[in-house]
Amino acid sequence: MLSLFKKYPSVTTMELAELAKGNIRLLDVRTPSEYQGGHIVKAQNVPLNTIESYQPTKDQPVYIICQSGMRSKQATRILSKKGVEAINVRGGMSQWHGLTKKGK
Question: Where do the Rhodanese domain residues begin and end (predicted)?
Fold first, then answer.
């Protein structure tokens, strides 16, 4: 049976906190103002409305976070269709308990 809801890989914010100790690529797909209000230090801001034009190198997975997990799930789907190993961060920034940075 064909599923309409394809499962995409995902991690929890706790798993992301461990992964972030290493060298990971993390995209924050929230708006620039949300991002500047507080984001994970390693996160690069690529708002969801610009994700189609994002050109990552395909040598490492891309972790994607937003506020709640809904926009990051959309971004994960879009990038996966482009052949990128994209991984959604479930719960988003609302579940993140690690350090954040304000501004750009």
Answer: 20-101
